[in-house]
Each structure stands twice: as structure tokens, then as C-alpha cells.
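Re-run with default settings, no changes from the original entry. Doing this only to confirm the output is reproducible before filing.
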Amino acid sequence: MIGAIPDQEPQELQRLYGAVAEYLSESIGVPVEYLPVTDYTASVSLFGLGDLDLVWYGGLTGVQARLQVDNAKAIVQRDIDEAFHSVFIANTSAGLAPFDDALGLSDLEGTRFTFGSESSTSGRLMPQFFLAEAGLGLDSFEGEVGFSGDHDKTIDLVEAGTYEAGVLNEQVWDARVEEGDVDTDKVVELVRTPPYHDYHWVIHPEVEELYGEGFIGVVVDALIALDRSVPEQKEILDLFGAGTFIETTNENYRQIEEVARSSGLIE
């Protein structure tokens, strides 16, 4: 059973992970199904219970999931996840201009501000870290900060003026802008953060008890083998916003774990 954090609209997630399940079923020779989850926390809990064998996580949720399961492994990430970024945006009515670097985030003081999900790496954890480096805490904004729930909703809330500024992952932002699905007369990109490792597949160690020694390697090979010259596989890579998949390791997410511990999101 595979799963994913619900960081986009449900119909988009079903389209993507339904296609992944079909591809993996054919490639690794065992039945694979996609199980939708209600929120980020559920994806972590179900992995810990063994109800999900392979899950597409952000950096933070991947760390949280692996801390629950001894010998769980981060195995594969997209090529873009070696150096991922968050994007800070603002409603043009707020009068904010783009910054040269993340230290300019100090200009957000006193605005109405929203993150994405509380457990999102690109929509909360790393943005909060970079805000702190610019001298801003959660009490630096007008009222309580918001948590929209996902990246698409962050854009919609800022565009509507519900919040003057917000932050989301660059992949969703770039895709929405390219599709013409953002009113750029109402929303401006302020800055992209410095890079960090983010999304990745995490696999449960019990799969080797179920399907035999070396099965994790079979899954890794299947994901890395996704080929843009094959139309069905190209569609999967395009939906992921990836050129290709590459191997990764738990060590690549040590920075995420350290930031999460310092922020109190992991004890």
C-alpha cells in the first residue's frame, strides 16, 4: 500500500498516485494500491502502524515517520529535491516589493501571514527557520499566523486578501503561475529561500519480510527507471514536476531533523 502527504487538491493526488500504483504493480510484480489520507499526521501514523508500506513525504514528515519505525529508509527523491526552495508571496495591496535575499523577510513584520500545513517542510518548517534568521517569530505578525492546510490554499488565501502574505513550495507555485492560475496583478513573488532537501519516498522495512530480501532495492530500481521516453512514465514524472528520480539517504534529512527539534516540532 502506498500513500502520500495531502499537499495538493485530492483529485490531483488521486491522478498522480493512482498512476504510480499502476506503474509499480507492473514493475515490481506485486499488487500496489494508493490509500488517500486526510492530513499529514495520518500519513505518518499509518506508516508507523504498518498500514502504509511506501509513502511520499516532505522532509519533516519523512523524518517523523522514520523516527517511529526502526530501519525505515529514505530511498528516492526527485532531482529537484536536492536543492528545494520555498516561495514567499504577498497580496499586492500589502505594498511589499520583492527582496534580494531571505533576510528581507523582516519586511513581513506586522502583516497577516499564513503557512501551509503545520507539518509541511516547505510550507512551514523551513520558512519558519528562515523567518527566524531574519528576526521574526510567530508573534511578529498581525494576529495569529494561519495554517492553510496545503500549498494551493495558501495561494488562494493570499490572492483573496484573507492574508497579506504566505509561503508555499516552489513546485506548486511555479505550476500554478505557468498554468495562468494565479492572478499576478494581485499576488507577487517576494523571495525564494536558500536550498534544502525536501520530498522523498520512505519505505517500511517490513516489506522485505513480506516480499523477500532485496525487495527494497527492487522498488528503488523501479522508481529510478521511470523513463521520459515512455508516455505513461513521462506523465508520472511531469505530475511530480521531476526530470527524473535519484537515490537518497536518511542522512540527507539531518538538517530537517535538527531544525524540527530546535523548533519543538520533534521532541
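The mean pLDDT is 95. Residues 10-28 form the longest helix (19 residues).
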